[in-house]
Structure formats: C-alpha cells, structure tokens
Sequence to fold (340 residues):
Amino acid sequence: MKKTLLAAIFGVIPALTLAHGVLAEQPIGIVIHGGAGTINKAQMSASQQQAYETALTAAIEQGYAVLQQGGSSLDAVTRAVIVLEDSPLFNAGKGAVYTFDESHELDASIMQGQDRNAGAVAGVTTIKNPILLARAVMEQSEHVMLAGTGAEAFADTLKLVRVPNNYYNTEFRYDALKRAKQALSPQPHQAKMPFDPAWRMGTVGAVAIDKQGNLAAATSTGGMTAKRYGRIGDAPVIGAGNFADNSSCAVSATGHGEYFIRYQVASDICARAKYQGKTAAVAAAEVISELATVGGTGGVIVVDPAGNLSWAFNTEGMYRAMLGSKTPLKVEIFNDKTAD
Ligand code: ASP
Fold:
C-alpha cells in the first residue's frame, strides 16, 4: 500500500523498490557469453586471448550502455548479440560454423520476461543478424518460431539485411570442419555423431535486467560443426537454450544442444528458482553439474529479478562477461580454477 502510494507519487512504479524504508534504484545488469568448450590457456596465444577479450568487452559495454540510458533489457541483449554476431570470432552470424555440406545454417531466439513473449528462427542461411529476425518474429508476427526459406521470406517483408551464404565463411571454421570430417570417417553418413567439444561448440548469448525490472534473454548460433540433415539445436528452442520470465530468471545457454533440449536446461533453471526457492545462481550450478553426469557439456549465463548476475559451465572454459550497477566488469575465458 505504502509502496504503491510512493510509486504513484514518483510515477516510476517498477523502477524503484523499498529497501529498509529507503527508495532504492532497481539494479540493472547484463551478462554475455560467446560459447563454451575446450578453451584452455595453453592452447590460446596472448593475441587470440586479447582479441576475444576485446570483443567481449565491446559487446558488454554496448549492451550495458543501453541499460544505463534507460533502454529495455530487450534492446540491451539485442545490441550485445549483434556485436558478437558481427565478430568473426564467435559461432554466430559472421563466424558461424560449417555444416557437413560446407554451408551455414543459423538459429536464434529472443524472449522478454514481462509477458514471456518470444521469437525464434531456425536454419536460416542468408540473414546477416539472425537475432534481429528472431526479434521481428516476436514483435511483428503472430508466431514464435519460423524456419528456413519461410523465415527468410518474412525477413524480406521487413527489409532485414540478407547476405550470400559465403558471407559466413572463415578459414578457421573451415579447418574445424575438415577436422570434424576426419573424426567422423569412416562413417560420415551417420546421423549419430561423436561429439568433441574441441571443435564443435560455440554460440553467443546475452541476458539482462533493465530499470523497469524486466528481464530478457537472447541466443544466436551457427549450431554445431558438420551438423547434418537440417539439424536444429537448442538455441531457437524456447526453454532449452533461451528463457526469460520476470518471476524467476533469464537464461541463455551454450553447449551440446541435443542435451539442452532433452533436459530443458534454461526453463529448468528458472523453474527450480521459482518453485524450489533456490537462487537462480544455485539452480544454474545444479542443473549444469547434473547435465555433466549424463554427458551434456556446456554452460549458461543467468540474471534474476534482483539483478544478480551469474554463470555456470562444466567445460574447460566459456567466453563470458558481466557488468551491472551492483557488479563490477568481469571478462573471463578460462575455468576459474585456471589462471586468467
Ligand atoms: N548449443 C549450440 C547448438 O547445439 C551449439 C553451442 O552452443 O555450442 O546448436
């Protein structure tokens, strides 16, 4: 009652909360990832490390600037993911991995926590920034997920930038495909493929909370190297690789998508926070360590309604960064146990 009255006087209902009788600012913050996998210091040169750190810093700073200026968490996660999609370093947008047939098929999704509205695209081959198309599906269509050529036809109605499929070509990813094919022989036509996180992982994502207390999550990927048969991963599957709900948390995932779909990783974390009274950070650590016991590798980034930022992963490393009004900037690559 008192809170409602004060809020009415100040006219900024969700942006302010009462803490010990004092009006406190709604914490804002953003967390990003650029994929998890066998990323270790011994195998990375100082200049490579520097390049990743610079790209992560640019993405987190641009996303955070949106929040500081009073922008929505949806705009902040979109901004951060675009920066990562436009970098050749990450498996999304420009740096997308190759399919077995030596082309690129991209997946992305976005979700906002205030009404659980969501949009996703799967298997698109000519969209410069798949996250923008996922957002358009959410905001400008009556659907949640569009795939392939239909999604691209929809992009044309909105004049979203399309690119030839070879826009996504990079030498580094082509080498990874060659290594993958070697590892797949002598049974290259099997749908069931061995999973080696050293050459198959990637994806980018962002989660954020804004001054209105709204959560959002965005995830974008080229999927897994040498994927076949129109394979779609967890990134565009709401509840698996991406989820946001103001009553629990927002999560973006990276890792072996088949496991993230089967275990509904993103929504399971938020459900544990909501129904078991755990913090979202504890729920994330639990789910990711349980996933490891069944062979699922990867990680997540998480934000909760109080603006607590966290991550959890069961791989050697995960490209990641966080920044919030109550969280200093952290840009990290390797496992906490190894020196950064
Ligand atoms: N989760 C992505 C997929 O399975 C890949 C990754 O994050 O490494 O498509």
Residues 35, 201-203, 221, 223-224, 233-235, 241, 254-255, 257 surround aspartic acid (CB under 6 Å). Residues 2-334 form a domain with the Glutamine Phosphoribosylpyrophosphate, subunit 1, domain 1 fold (CATH 3.60.20.30). Residues 46-68 form the longest helix (23 residues). The longest strand covers residues 29-37.
